[in-house]
């Protein structure tokens, strides 16, 4: 029986080791966690309710539809790996999920990675509270986060330099500093040129050359935050438009896993390659969206070596990617 105010989480994963690892991470949030070992027990657990969050792998994803029918307010987290996402992307994105983590480390039982475990704890906690924004949620307590504002496109270059200087002081290897610079530059570029729209919802700067300076209106200012906790160096870039809806995010996410000419936009803005390049610079990539209000994109780069990737996958494929969007109350609620 649940205690007053206690949250309830159901974990449905096929691998016993993965199930135990996920349940341990979820329990760290203080939630009551149930991780049934069989399909019959899983179905029974869904019917018993109440549930706040369902954590499910692709093999058990069909149960998510059933779960949401029983509980429309249920938050669903999908844990999957890159091969499954590439193969079943369209079906995956049809699931009634609140967030997903595409990562080898959280989907493969032998990859016990403390950073990935902390990311899962953060994911569940964000769903419990509805508070999805903030770089500090992924950093250790006490980490100093710097904040700067972009009011004109020319300021981005100075912010890239400042972030790289901070990262160098944090011990980031020289080979990673160029990746960080690329990440910050691309996220700022997208927020400055692609995010702003006019009163009719039409893009204001997306068709302009990136070489053409842009002076932003006050409601278009971009916020950049960055810092380190000794294990990770993190960057977040926020705009005030919240235009990165799920369909657009899906297209971007799929680009992050492709390696062909579809990456490159032929438009004057040329932003088609940006998200792909930024994603390939990081170990974790987080997209937070309050539709029509705010988009925050977070990139995390490890300062030390990551655990050895699962057999058959290179280090470059072991990144995690999370997408969150806020839920607003329906009329009458």
Provide tags for this entry.
single chain; 333 residues; alpha/beta; Rossmann fold; Heat Shock Protein 90; 2 domains; 6-stranded mixed sheet; 10 helices; disordered C terminus
Any overview of this molecule?
- The chain is α/β, with parallel strands linked by helices and 333 residues long.
- The protein folds into two domains: 8-126, Response regulator (Rossmann fold), CATH 3.40.50; 135-302, 2-Layer Sandwich (Heat Shock Protein 90), CATH 3.30.565.10.
- It is 35% helix and 20% strand.
- The chain is built from ten helices and eleven strands.
- Strands 6-7-8-10-9-11 form a six-stranded mixed β-sheet, covered by helices on one side. A five-stranded parallel β-sheet has the order 2-1-3-4-5, with helices on both faces.
- The longest helix is centred in the middle third of the chain and has 21 residues, at 174-194.
- The two termini are 27 Å apart.
Question: What order do the helices and strands follow?
Answer: EHEHEHEHEHHEHHEEHHEEE
Q: Given the C-alpha coordinates, what overall shape results?
A: globular
CATH level 4 superfamily of the largest domain: Histidine kinase-like ATPase, C-terminal domain
> Based on DSSP secondary structure assignment, what is the total number of beta strands?
11
Stretches where pLDDT is under 50 for at least 5 consecutive residues are 259-272, 313-318, 329-333
On the 0-100 scale, what is the average pLDDT?
Answer: 81
Count of individual domains: 2
CATH topology of the largest domain: Heat Shock Protein 90
Strand content: 15-25%
Number of DSSP helices?
10
Strand order of the largest sheet: 6-7-8-10-9-11
Q: Rg from C-alpha positions?
A: 20 Å
Per CATH, the class of the largest domain reads: Alpha Beta
- Architecture (CATH level 2) name of the largest domain: 2-Layer Sandwich
Largest sheet: 6 strands, mixed
Structural class: alpha/beta
Q: Span from first to last CA? A: 27 Å
Helix content: 25-40%
